[in-house]
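sry for the spam today, last one i promise. struct tokens for design, 164 residues
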């Protein structure tokens, strides 16, 4: 993954915020270690060497692999905080047309309901959801200049820590 694409993924993730959570994404659990995430993936993920250029917002993305759902394949990046706890999952899809973005948006809306934070500019489209039962924050972004779509999962805000 190029540095520009990685920075876009982390930038999209930062817009979602972070908070402690008891939820999870697929076969992982928020807060698990990189080794535990790799083991839980049953061979679909692998550790990659730490690279400072991929470290943003106190997250190091040191696990990657392929993730497939239905007819789509994504490059998955798992990112960990300074305590080596899982805090972010980014799924990247290259050659992401507007039609494909709309299909992902419809699929996420069918699963999580009406999104919030719908933003559009000449450089990106972005929408976010909150998975209340699963306590996850989900973001979908498309970057037309690079034809890249990114779906980002983060732990959501717990009921004990709702904020403003």
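last one done:
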């Amino acid at each position: 993954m190029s540095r520009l694409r990685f920075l876009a993924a982390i930038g999209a993730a930062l817009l979602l915020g972070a908070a402690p959570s008891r939820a999870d994404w697929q076969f992982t659990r928020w807060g698990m270690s990189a080794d535990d995430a790799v083991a839980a993936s049953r061979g679909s993920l692998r550790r990659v060497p730490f690279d400072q250029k991929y470290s943003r917002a106190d997250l190091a993305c040191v696990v990657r692999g392929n993730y497939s759902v239905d007819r789509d394949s994504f490059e998955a990046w798992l990112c960990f905080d300074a305590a080596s706890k899982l805090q972010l999952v980014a799924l990247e899809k290259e050659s992401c047309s507007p039609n494909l973005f709309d299909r992902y948006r419809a699929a996420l809306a069918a699963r999580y309901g009406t999104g919030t934070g719908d933003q559009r500019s000449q450089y990106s489209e972005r929408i976010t959801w909150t998975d209340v039962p699963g306590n996850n924050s989900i973001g979908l972004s498309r970057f037309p200049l690079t034809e890249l779509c990114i779906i980002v999962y983060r732990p959501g805000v717990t009921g004990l820590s709702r904020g403003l």
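Residues 3-155 form one domain. ok im logging off now
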